[in-house]
Amino acid sequence: MTFTKVGSAIDLLYDRMVGVQASGKEVLVAKLKDRYYALGNVCTHNGCRLSGGKLRDGKIRCPCHGSVFDPANGKVLQGPAEKPVPVYHIKVENGSIWVDL
Length: 101
Ligand code: FES
Known about the structure:
By secondary structure, the protein is mainly β. It has strands at about 5-10, 15-20, 25-30, 35-40, 55, 60, 70, 75-80, 85-90, 90-95, 95-100. Helix content is about 0%, strand content about 50%.
């Protein structure tokens, strides 16, 4: 595994998500309760950035056409998207967020 630092844990509030670029990839980092998640930030339907959407009831909703993704595994919970977004390993160490890209 090759972890890349993507931000500071203190800057990511509960039930919030943020889009970052790291190692040439668009990554969505989300914090739900006490858990952190890292997924691809590009919707598989038509390429909108999921970071501009909503994080509600533990699910990520795309801002463009309403596809809903599960942050734990990237699976589509509601279309029109049909393909999952990639999921990355994430860890928090010494106050920093690291993602295995
Ligand atoms: S681009 Fe995300 S639902 Fe269409």
